[in-house]
Specification:
The chain has a single domain, classed as 3-Layer(aba) Sandwich (Rossmann fold). The radius of gyration is 17 Å and the shape is globular. It starts with 5 loop residues before the first strand and ends with a strand. It is 36% helix and 26% strand. The mean pLDDT is 93. It is of the alpha/beta class and 226 residues long. β4 and β5 form a beta hairpin. The protein has a 6-stranded mixed sheet with strand order 6-7-8-3-9-10. Bound molecules: adenosine-5'-triphosphate. The site of adenosine-5'-triphosphate (ATP) has 10 residues, from α1.
């Protein structure tokens, strides 16, 4: 059996205010290397809450989380921040690029934060990621001067800069038209097939989800199908 890249075991999460309620109920599942998985479920069922936990940003939960076979739960904040930068790439509905910075600078930022390579190496890597996304010609443009679809590609290049093992996305195509949404889907598919990258994408788009390897369906804080 393959060992999962990411594994959640019996995750429970409660919100205490305004009244105590259980938002995640005994969530267990894993993702293998190169798997492209979507998470679907009605609004409010707990998808974003789960993604925050899986991405190590929320540590207030019960249960265990493993990334590359390492127990993530209970690690100190510095270690978590390191693990997050090194192993996880994020793509959101709104791209969160710095608009006054160039495309290249935006893509380089997470690698500068990790500070394991020289600026020259980081620039070389960033250009490589822009090439994978077919946008090397945009390198010198300011992020404010490119289209929505282009911004989302830059956001994907940025998510790839530290060569993560998994990309997580919260509705990364939610803000795109169907043409650009297709582009993003194809890029993700290529990354999983050609580079063995795992992808975990929360989406409301059934066409998108139906084309991924597997759909995890949530209902009222539980996983009802994997
Ligand atoms: N900080 C918080 N405090 C209390 N309740 C919260 C908090 N954040 C989210 N919730 C509630 O937890 C539930 C799950 O929210 P979550 O954002 O995870 O849902 P979702 O499935 O991602 O929804 P959507 O598809 O609309 O983005 C909802 O009922 C929401 O109102």
């Amino acid at each position: 059996m393959m060992t999962p890249i990411l594994e959640a075991r019996h995750i429970d999460k409660y919100f205490k205010k305004p009244v105590k309620f259980q938002v995640l109920k005994d969530i267990s599942f894993g993702i293998n290397a190169g798997e492209f998985v979507s998470i679907m479920g009605k609004s409010g069922c707990g998808k974003s809450t789960l993604l925050y936990i899986l991405s190590t940003m929320d540590t207030a939960y019960e249960g265990e989380l493993y990334l590359n076979n390492e127990l993530i739960t209970g690690q100190n904040p510095d270690k978590l921040s390191y693990i997050r930068n090194k192993h996880i790439g994020f793509v959101f509905q709104f791209h969160y690029l710095l608009s006054d910075f160039s495309v290249l600078e935006n893509v380089m930022l997470p690698a500068k934060k990790l500070a394991e390579k020289s600026p020259q190496e980081i620039e070389y890597d960033a250009i490589g990621k822009l090439q994978i996304l077919n946008i090397p010609h945009l390198a010198k443009k300011k992020a404010s001067q490119i289209s929505g679809g282009e911004k989302q590609r830059v956001a994907i290049a940025r998510a790839l800069i530290n060569s993560p093992s998994i990309i997580m996305g919260d509705e990364p195509t939610g803000n795109l038209d169907s043409h650009n949404s297709d582009n993003v889907f194809n890029i993700f598919k290529q990354l999983s097939e050609e580079q063995g990258l795992s992808l975990l994408i929360v989406t409301h788009d059934e066409d998108f989800a139906n084309r991924t390897h597997r759909i995890v369906t949530m209902e009222d804080g539980r996983i009802i199908s994997v």
